[in-house]
Amino acid sequence: MSNVLHELATILEQRKSASKETSYVASLHDKGLGEILAKVNEEANETIEAARNCDSSLDESIAAVIHETADLWFHTMVMLSHLELGPNQILTELEKRLEISGLEEKASRKI
Fold first, then answer.
1. Partner of 68 at 20 to 30 A CA spacing, among 49, 55, 75, 106?
2. pLDDT value at 104 more than 80
3. How far is the C-alpha of 53 from the C-alpha of 50, rounded, in Å?
4. What are the pLDDT digits (tens) for 19-33?
5. Contacts of 104 (CB under 8 A, 6+ apart)
6. For residues 96 and 19, what is the distance between their CA atoms, to the nearest angstrom?
7. pTM score
8. CB of 11 within 8 A of CB of 3?
9. SS3 99
């Protein structure tokens, strides 16, 4: 599997302490978790809308879903970085879930 998430996490950590005037990531961190969550929400809604309108026979429609999903993942990674978390924790959780069915996993949740 690709190392893109790990590479992105490293870049995000570096940019976290950059100047907010020169780094979009630093500007998001400077605005705080609320602004980061607003961006995650915005990108999630845009991803949903792109998927809802997707016509798999149209390249631009597929491209829109891919583009919006990439934006969502990026801003989710910024959120994780802000919370001092990273892709390894998420990937470990997903790995655990490979061992059980989705219905079992959902039923076992305490939250």
1. 106
2. no
3. 5
4. 999 999 999 999 999
5. none
6. 38
7. 0.87
8. no
9. coil
Domain count across the chain:
1
CB atoms within 10 A of CB 96: 10
**Closest Cα to residue 41, out of 52, 31, 49?**
49
In the block, which residue shows the tokens 């609320």?
34
Q: Where are the alpha helices (DSSP H) in the chain?
A: 4-16, 24-31, 33-52, 59-82, 87-97, 102-108
What pLDDT, on the 0 to 100 scale, is given for residue 58?
85
Is a pLDDT exceeding 70 seen at residue 68? yes
What span, in angstroms and rounded, lies between the C-alpha atoms of 52 and 34? 27
Whichever domain contains 100, its CATH number is: 1.10.287.1080
Which residue segment(s) compose the domain that 28 sits in? 4-108
Instruction: Please tell me the distance from the alpha carbon of residue 49 to that of residue 92, in angstroms, as a whole number.
Output: 29
Which amino acid appears at position 63 of this protein?
Answer: A
Phi, psi of 33 (to 5 degrees): -60, -40
Q: Which one-letter amino acid corresponds to residue 33?
A: L
